[in-house]
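Board notes, transcribed. Complex of a protein with alpha-D-ribofuranose.
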Amino acid sequence: MKVLNYGSLNVDYVYQVPHMVTAGETLLSSKLNVFSGGKGLNQSIALAKAGVAVDHAGMIGSDGRFLLDECTRYGVGTNFLKKTDEKNGHTIIQVDETGQNCILLYGGTNQMQTKEYIDDVLSHFSGGDVLVLQNEVNLLDYLIDRASELGMRIILNPSPMNDSVLSCALEKVDLFLLNEIEGEQLTGTDDPEQILNRLHEKYPAASFVLTLGSRGAWYYDGTKKAFQDIFPVKAVDTTAAGDTFTGYFIAAMLDGMAVEDCLKRAALASSIAVSRAGAAPSIPSKEEVEEALKRI
Ligand code: RIB
């Protein structure tokens, strides 16, 4: 079984601010850091750090060449990455004194996927292989359709949610990892239990992991239901907390662990990421998570 993550790679410009800038305001930032990021890349790095042999597919622009080195540094397979001379996808992220963030996303190369490129990448995969997706690249619907035709297991983190997710054949997805806002957009209710019930009604063959921020996370597949609380930490920067959770949950699941253990590892890894600055660089190693598991 091979694991492919087809997704975004961003350059994250992270500004430390006293509060999130408001309309019409000019605000002095006390610090700027430039990190590797993107929901796709973060999740690939989390998967690799958690011990999964994952290949990443996506496009790198002229100003994002260091992202390739980041993949190599963290053990993410780079054979399917494509270089272009266009401007790389990037973000402007404000992080306030409580560690909360606010993200402005520029699509750049992440919105330049072509059907030819996707066909070429997917031609290296077949039934039973795993495809991990988020919603920061264009042609998400095409990726889901082609992967489904191949019999791949499709895992979707529908973030950031927008109409392009709603236009996909979501019944082809095997596992959704989503937060309550995305859950509400897919089901029309903000009650976590109802979100899970309605998701199961709409997509009966799928499993769901619903994250609720500081209120923990639920798993539901129509039969089994499990809950995991958060591990509280002082938040430094919440960027990539969800991506870390996603990568570690998938890794544990592919390892055949019980759902309760998958949730616990994911929550613990995510809490470590929250206690550090940056996106990809904040994701803990498997050894760090194993050590932390011994202390709880
Ligand atoms: O999930 C966090 C990521 O979202 C950041 O790294 C940023 O690039 C945005 O895509």
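The chain has a mean pLDDT of 97. The longest helix spans residues 259-274.
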